[in-house]
Backbone:
């Protein structure tokens, strides 16, 4: 069974990036190497701050969307940076 993971990274500039993957370690390493999303390429190094695992892709993608709609303050509370 594949885990579907929603994650939040803290970038070097202090910004937060939310994404989805099925291989968390690989994806974080890609972001950190500058090979991840366009947003994180100029903001390395990145640090994994938070993740949630789901059994279905649709549940994970829905949660990713929910997190992306949160305000900066709400995201900080979610990941424990407040």
Residues:
């Amino acid at each position: 069974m594949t885990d579907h993971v929603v994650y939040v990274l803290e970038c070097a500039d202090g910004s937060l990036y939310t994404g989805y993957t099925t291989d968390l370690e690989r994806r974080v390493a890609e972001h950190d190497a500058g090979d991840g999303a366009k947003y994180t390429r100029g903001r390395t190094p990145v640090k994994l701050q938070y993740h949630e695992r789901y059994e279905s892709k649709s549940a994970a993608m829905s949660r990713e969307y929910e997190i992306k709609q949160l305000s900066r303050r709400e995201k900080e509370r979610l990941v424990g940076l407040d």
Notes: The chain has a mean pLDDT of 95.
